Amino acid sequence: MSNSPPSSNAMRRKVVVNFGLFFLFFAFYLGAAVIQTPSFKDIAAMPALGMPLGMLLSLLIFPVSWVIMIIWFWRSK
Amino acid sequence: MNLKILFSLLLSFFAPAVAFAADGEQAAELNVPIVIGFIAFFVLVSIFITWWTSRSTKSASDFYVAGKGVPWAQVGIAMTGSYLSAASFLGCAGDIGVFGIDSIWLSIGFFGGYMAVLLLIAGPLRNIGSYTVAGALHSRYPDDRIKLTVMLCTVVISTFYLVPQMLGAGLLFEMLLHWNFVWVTVGLGILMSIYIIFGGMKATLYNQVIQASFLWGTMVILVTLAYFGIGHGSFFGILDTAQQTVPPMIAAKDPAVVAAIKGLPASEAIAVARQMLPDAPSTMTIGVKTSSTLAMVSTVIALVFGTAGLPHILIMFFTVPSARAAKKSVALCIVNLGIFYLCAIVLGFLLFPGIYPKLVAWISQGPVGVGLAKNMSVLEMSHKVGGTWLMAIGASGAIAAVLSTSAGLMITVASSVSHDLYKVYINPNATEKQELGIAKITTLLMSAIAVSLAVLLKKENIAWLVMLAFGIAASAIFPAMLSTLWWKRTTRQAVIASILTGLGVSVLFIVLLFVKGAKYTLLGLPVAGGPGLFGVVASALVLILVTMATSDTGKNPTEFMALAHRPDTE
Fold first, then answer.
1. How far does A17 lie from chain B, in Å, by closest CA?
2. Of the candidates B369, B395, B372, which has an alpha carbon nearest to the alpha carbon of residue B382?
3. Based on the number of CB atoms within 10 Å of its own CB, is B552 exposed (0-12), middle (13-18) or buried (19 or more)?
4. Residue-range domains of chain B with CATH
5. Pick among A61, A70, A71, A72 to test the B interface (most B CBs inside 10 A)
6. What is the pLDDT at residue B16?
7. CA neighbor of B215 nearest in space, from B73, B344, B400
8. Residues B152, B201: Cα–Cα separation, whole Å
9. At what angle do helices B323-363 and B72-83 cross, to 10 degrees?
């Protein structure tokens, strides 16, 4: 192992970016999953953009993930 | 080749198509020669690739990690194939066809797992570099017990994942072609063993690329045809139909409805069922399948963190030349999976205007019929929009899915047993050749075990084993791996305690499953949902507490962190 340790600033920045983006994704993902359960079905059934809100949020996980991925690649350059 | 077999094969090319349908329904016909043609294509391609790659598979590095020089795009596609099982191809859409909107989370759940892999694991894990998951942890904590524990987890997770694949493949052939279940599973086991034994990881990756491309392409073509042919190119129109539709699971419980809609076109059948059951929920109603928020949270946690702990996915990062290549391969995989699972969701909703009476007729036959509806509806839809050709391609796609996933699992177990058990505990002085020999014997053994278990458990519904595999990976491997890669303060004792805790909670769930049954709940969580929530929380808590109480942070943690988080290079 002959690698110089990352500076504490660089490491801190990496932790913030990686875990921050993951937390953002996970919060959205878990929130969308929970709304789509019987306990929150009234909120999930509210119409939004031509479909129930719960379904819209669930389907948004795909583009949200792709956007997070693009941001991450851009930030970690 | 035996003349009798050859004659039977030739006969099958001229034989009429095989029909399968629910009682009284018009039969969808499967073009057997085309299915056999595609299977023969996969077998021949596998043999050619194995012969081609075997010439360059000489060292342990070649066998385990394909020489660490595979292009990221190839690994990204292979990773897609390794992850997309027959359950993803047939089951995700089929489940929506049975229960409605509740089941969209089956697709979304599987998709979400790779974000944790990309953001938290892929880069640093590739930088550490090893042959196995246990090897990566061991490079920071040179404690053989870690290798043994992770090897055990790897074998259990991979077996739980592999057996339903083999069983599903056998059942698919049995239902579609009336082939003997045992011979089909044995045949698949032999085919995969051959290309792993002779071609190692290189042959596995090439085969996975071909199988994944076929599977992905089939799904996209099928959905495009169905979207414009049956859905008339309107997503909101499809949702409107779903809003009117009584869930097949509910309609099938009323014999009067089943009789009334028999033989009707789907649109009329939907209207009649709604007229007869005006107060029934629709396929857009939440709660037809999902019972509790806690179960949903546990499933989501198991899928997100479990994917990041699945050994057969993690070892693929060791096959690319750099951390940046590993990240790119995961990114490509995420895009591929996103498109695939979106297609699966749209296809699920298209099943209502497409084959509603057939879904209800299947489900009305009881539990076996529910299984048929879940697994056969995608093929029925293929027949509806593309005739016998597309249906045969769909069936071949399912077989491709089984092959690509199962091969990845088998080579993972082979690597882990030979590298982490044999080399460490049984013969520490083993030469590279001996180690490779053990890997090849393990492949054969694993194949035999998977086939035997599939045959023994044929009558059982063991789809939950896959969920359990995700739960164990999330509980036992993910917390230990994450903290090893990111937290310098993590101690050796904490890693061992965390893995054992995750494994312990998982074993508790397995015992409860067998003793109390799949519907038993532990603190409000159905045990069939897997140990995800409890396992991850317990494992993470133990990891933090033991880290606070101990001080062995491993072999030079500063250098380990420097290696894991060094700047990316191409």
1. 9
2. B395
3. middle
4. 3-564 (1.20.1730.10)
5. A61
6. 38
7. B400
8. 21
9. 30
Rounded to an integer, what distance in angstroms lies between the CA atom of residue B211 and that of residue B396? 10
Nearest Cβ partner for A4 among B327, B342, B562? B562
CA distance, residue B290 to nearest chain A CA (Å)? 6
Lowest mean pLDDT among B19-23, B135-139, B533-537: B19-23
- The pLDDT, as a whole number, for residue B176 is 76
Which has more confidence, B389 or B345?
B345
Three-state SS sequence of B267-291? HHHHHHHHHHCCCCCCCCCCCCCCC
CA of B257, closest CA in chain A: separation in Å? 26
Helix (H) or strand (E) holding A48: strand A47-48
Residue B491, φ and ψ in degrees, nearest 5: -105, 160
Across A39-54, average pLDDT? 90
Asked if the Cβ–Cβ distance from B286 to A38 is below 8 Å, we say yes
- Tell me which residue has tokens 């084993």: B465
pLDDT for the residue numbered B24: 43
Residues in chain A with CB shorter than 8 Å from the CB of B105 are 33, 36, 58
Contacts with B99 from chain A: Cβ below 8 Å: none
Radius of gyration of chain A (CA): 18
Tokens found for residue B71:
């292009």
In tens, the pLDDT along B547-569 reads 999 999 988 898 999 988 888 76
Which residues 292-351 of chain B have a CB within 8 Å of chain A?
292-293, 296-297, 300, 304, 327, 331, 334-335, 338, 341-342, 345
Interface probe, candidates A4, A26, A53, A60, chain B, greatest B C-beta count within 10 A: A26
Residues 6+ apart with CB under 8 A from B204: B78, B195, B196, B407, B408, B411
Q: Per residue in A6-44, pLDDT tens?
A: 677 888 888 999 999 999 999 999 999 999 888 898 899
- Beta strand B28-30 with B521-522 is unpaired
Over the stretch B488-516, which tens digit does the pLDDT of each residue have?
999 999 999 999 999 998 888 878 877 87
Bridge partner residues of A48 (DSSP) = A51
| Closest A-chain CA to B301 | A30
pLDDT band at B275 (very low <50, low <70, confident <90, very high): very high
Token pair listed for B217: 């392409």
Residue B441 dihedral angles phi and psi, to the nearest 5°: -65, -40
Q: Which residue has the tokens 């296809």?
A: B347
Beta bridge partners of B525: B522
Hey, of B139, B241, B286, which one would you mutate to test binding to chain A, going by the most A CBs within 10 A of its CB?
Answer: B286
A22:B119 CB<8 A: yes
The three-class DSSP label of residue A51 is strand
The total number of residues written for chain A in this structure: 77
Rounded Cα gap, residues B529 and B428, in angstroms: 40
Residues A14, B570 contacting (CB under 8 angstroms): no
Contact between chains at A36 and B105 (C-beta distance less than 8 A): yes
Write out the two tokens for B432.
């590279």
Inter-residue contact B225 to B401 (CB < 8 Å): no
Number of H helices, E strands in chain A: 3, 2
B550 touches B494 (CB < 8 A): yes
Which of B87 and B346 is assigned the larger pLDDT?
B346
Residue with tokens 């076929």: B214
